[in-house]
Amino acid sequence: MNGHRSHRARGRTLLTLLSAGLMVASLACKPSEPAAPPVDPAAEAAAKAKADKEAAAKDRADKAAAKRAELAALPPLPGVEAPKAVDFPKPIVSTLDNGLEVIVLEDHEMPVVDISLVVKAGNIYAPAEHSKLAALTANLLEEGTKKLKKKELDEKIDATGGSKYASAGDELVYIGADVLARDADLGMKLLAAEATEPAFPEDSFEKIKRLMIQEVASEKSSPFGLALRMGEHVIFGEKSPYGRAFPTDDEITALTRDQVVAFYEKHYHPGNAMLVIAGDITADKAASLAKKHFGKWKAGEPIVAPSGDKQGAPTKTVVHLVDREASAQATIAIVVPAPKIGEAGYLDGKILQALLGGGLSGRLNQVLREQLGLTYGVGAFNSYGYEGGMFFAGGNTKTKSATEFTEALLELLKEPADKGIAGDELGRIQSKLSGQFALEVEGVGVMARKTITQRTYGLAPDFWERYRVDIEAATPEQIKTSSQALWGGPVQIIAVGNASKLKEPLSAFGEVHVYDLSLKPKG
Amino acid sequence: MRRLAPLALAGIFALSGIAGVAALPTTASAAADLSIPIEKFTLDNGLTVVLSEDHSAPIVSVYITYHVGSSQEVEGRTGFAHLFEHMMFNGSKNVPEGAFGYYVDNTGGSLNGNTEPDRTNYFETVPSNYLEGMLFLEASRMDSLILTEESLGNEKDVVKEEVRQQQENQPFTKTILLDWPAAAFSSWAYNHSIYGSMEDLSNAPAQAFIDFFDRFYTPNNAVLSICGDIDPAKTKALVEKYFGPLKKGPELQHSFPEEAVQTAAIYKEVKDPLAPVPLSLVSFDIPPPREKDRDALELLATILTDGASARLPKRLVDEDKLAANVVMQAGFPIPTYGPGQLATLLIASKDTTLPDLRAAFWDELTKVQKKGISAAELKRAKAKLYKEYVEGLSKTLYKAAQLATYETFYGGAERLNGDYKRFDKITPADLKRVANTYLTQERSVTFDIVPGADAPGIPGGAQ
């Protein structure tokens, strides 16, 4: 980093000398011509600043390209053998008479069973004015059933050494039990009781609401939590259930038991859920336990996911600055709309995510951390929901480096769109993603989640089996086109930090909108 | 038990010197007593190697523990062990700067390192066809590292950014990682910051880092643990090939610092402008891991906080509604293998004051001290620890980490198998005794962290 700084300083000096020399030469050649109109000092300074900026950007890009070429020329690691096949356990699917789909993934390596009931009753199904209703309903499932008090539920599961949970994500509520294989029957019994006959005891409401208010406060206290929520807010729009700002304490406090019961009655039924049982259990045993504990669950009306409120793609680059006065750093991220899983371009996004953000060798860390020393770490990921996806890239940097960091980050993101990606670099990323998949399939819990994703998003039945083949099929042209689709237009810049120190420097990138910690516009 | 050929397994057990394990049970669920194959050998240069074969997924974890941490540093030269956690990824004689991460990333695998007071760990999990490559990379950085003023300078800057991010830009962490250890541990070896002083780092010349590396990052001061889809015989040959030529380092005598028994309660209130809620950290001096009293304290912590039916969540979260969450753990947040700390995090619920929350917490401790705990509670805690043991054997990387820990600190990797049984001999009377001996006001350190803006200065703070 020290070396780089001195190099940049030298670059600027050379540029200044060169401009001065040109000016002298031009004056010497045309002594008799009328004097040039007076130079506007502000315009001159702006031109110089622009030239300096371009020189610095070129210097960064040249150095990064040289480093990439150096790494690409490395000899291969010794002794690399042919990759081994990855066994993807086949999900065995059956349906109970009441419509509940039961999916079993057998894995007998360790005597544990992971049971999850997923219900399409996550946060997007809650009405905008009661955005925490789905979460409150899910959190209350563990507070007691019609036959067992919370204390009894807790004691029974704890006595086995196992654990259970219930929580709401965007689309799904996960109600799960993680037990030794010998306790699968009890685990499923407790889980079924919580999901199918919750008591929603009045005296638990205050406790759970207070905890939820604290959870929101906690999310608001994390720079990353704020940046992520701000990103979703600007990409999906505040009218989308994916783009909501933080709920107020009063909004949570006002939720009632009647609202919870009505939400539960509408969403929690077998046709709107899946039971996934993974681990040391046979498919027959799992199916018979499912029938025993969920067979009497009453069917309900089908539910359609809310949709259609997503805003169009942003038309200009805007800096969205969340004012966090006590920040010791600036958190900077660049977000753009992206395809969701299963859509054309999604896998290209995975490739770009690996190229840019993948660990220490990703382009972002290579330049922003290793070359420029601007950050401890930077990353990229693409998240998605029913309404589409978001590509998020960013990290933390010193407040005074925010401009330099943002400039360099923007250049890095746009580079594959401008210059494309070489075939050998793409090959490296493809082989990396293929290897990563081999690692991901360790543990039956991960396989269960992949199966849930496949079914939740209506992916092709062989989506995961084909994943590696489809990744390998991507071409450099395709990646360039997908990059252009992501970063060819305006981007949204998210910043979290001390606004009094960041607003002015970040205005170089576009109009700056300042928000408070609740993501409400400020000033 | 994972899928393994019984003969191979029997052979490995014979090598590892474990008696009484003749063959595998026929199915996993029939296994009453889970164990894993463990083979161990030592190279001429002193490198101890632990292998555990497991073909359930085509992956392998390579894990090296160096017996050096922040407690081996000397005053005026702090932050070295942690800086090496960065430098080790930077470049060595055969692996140019930036190549280590590049090679590992390209496999699709993951890598990381972490620094503690008593050790530093470096590890990769990759598809098993890259095993030889990982051994080449690890041996190369054990053999030589690029330690120049320039390369060190860059990483010193990254460390400063890491400190800014982890300690100064997140709620609670500055107090928990910096102020609390300084108060809770009496020995300088344990109570100075793992990150070290930024001034010490800036002042230290490259030669000081070279000397530190030559002393501690040697084959005879390390344990290499390899778990996963491996052929033990072939792996042994590869280890010999890459690590065999490395030169032995100086003989080191390891000991743990002595901690004075605390005789008067320590209390501090800290204002944290980033804290979303009040939090109280209450800790106690406790003995080193695996001593009988420590085991009893770990069981007691499980009884008190593990699971929603445990005493503290039941009382503080469900009944009195004073806390949003309670965590109690030994060796947390700073793990030590000498004398340690048992820390409790009490996160207040909305509108609760920390004195009220702490009063209820102490009331529960007093109940244990006076009336002890029930046999059912002890049974439940043992079931939790058994489940934890089973889960610990199901992840390649975690298994590799545990084997390295057992080999470095617990008298041998082979002790991992069935180790949960050591808790069987703990009785309710032991728990009552340790509660009275260790969980006392006199031995406690309390930090109340309350949201507030008038923090007494953040070193190196906002820029």
Query: Which radius of gyration of chain B do the C-alpha atoms yield?
Result: 23 Å
Most extensive interface: A-B, 88 and 93 residues
Strand content of chain A: 15-25%
Helix and strand composition category of chain B: alpha+beta
Over the alpha carbons, how many angstroms does the gyration radius of chain A reach?
A: 28 Å
- Name the overall outline of chain A: globular
Separation of the first and last Cα atoms of chain B: 54 Å
Number of strands of chain A: 12
Number of helices of chain A: 18
Tell me the major beta sheet of chain A.
6 strands, mixed
- How many strands, what sense, and barrel or not for the largest sheet of chain B? 6 strands, mixed
Oligomeric state of the chains present here:
heterodimer
| Envelope shape of chain B | globular
Low-confidence residue ranges of chain A: 1-34
The pLDDT mean of chain A sits at 88
Mean pLDDT of chain B: 89
**Structural classification of chain A:** alpha+beta
Strand order of the largest sheet of chain B: 1-2-6-3-5-4
SSE pattern of chain B, N- to C-terminal:
HEEEHHEEHHHHHHEHEEHHEEHHHHE
Q: Which H/E pattern describes the elements of chain A? A: HHEEEHHEEHHHHHEHEEHHEEHHHHHEHE
